[in-house]
Amino acid sequence: MKRATTSDTLRRIGGEDLVAVGVCSAEPFPDVEAELLRRKTSGLSSRLTFTFNRPSVSTDVRKSFPWAERIVVGAATYLPEAGSPEGSPGETGRVARFATDDHYEPLRIGLLAIADHLISQGWNAEVLVDDNRLVDRAAAVRAGVGWWGKSSMVLAPKYGPWILLGSVVTDAPLAVDTPMERSCGSCVACIPACPTGAIIAPGVIDARLCLAAILQAPGPIPVELRRAVGDRVYGCDDCLDACPPGERWLAGSTIDRGTPSLIGILNASDEELLRVYDHFYVPKRDPNYLRRNALVALGNNGGADALEAARTYLDHDSGMLREHASWAIAEIEARC
Fold it and tell me: CB neighbours of 265 closer than 8 A, spacing ≥ 6?
């Protein structure tokens, strides 16, 4: 086998879409496993699965890849291309910036280039992007790509929280990088910025209150949290918006994306919704959850002209949608 390539070279191989690359050992993350289990037991993870589903697997990549020796972590930013949707008028909803398009695709391409290079050198390599077999944030911190923010996001120099993470698991004996000696210090800007108080301690999220989690969860949206949803139909950026390390990068984004028509969502067919929002996580691939979110956003922001669209759901086959439509109509009528 040829000599393994250095991490600096791997970043160049990954291309310009990778704003950072770091390498760490593939040793388990026992502290992270213990914390995931604690949050599951306490109920803080709510109905979230992903890395909470099997903590013993997601915190030990060797359970999936016994040959793993290193984890190459790559970061890509999705601003300014993602746009910067702010408070939207009337019948327009809001999508968090990370979901205004499949912003993971450039990250995948860069990591695949790295994996292909390692394979060509005679090593094993497997790309993991948005994959529950690895706690990618913990790997990013170990690999020196960023540091833990109090919002639970990984923050990177220049980009703050506006990054997506992915990894290449390999048996190549790459030199490991050193974790950053940085922290948020006394800054707590993200904590009061959360509209529901979901950041209950530095780095600790109560998923039962987190709007990003709630808008992806199955079942009805809790009545007591519906007004806090505002115009959101997918995701929430409030704690990211408040993060000082990302302010300058955020300022370069443009307000031109991430504002779908709520009535358009309600009028669309199942096929159209799943095609347009294919990159969203939708429980059981059931488009009624997109309609549920749109009804709540319409109830919070729609005018009298939105009543007709909401009323069409009073006779819907889905009891969940009938109830959300009834709530939305009552909210609009009380306001108008």
Answer: 93, 233, 273, 290, 291, 294
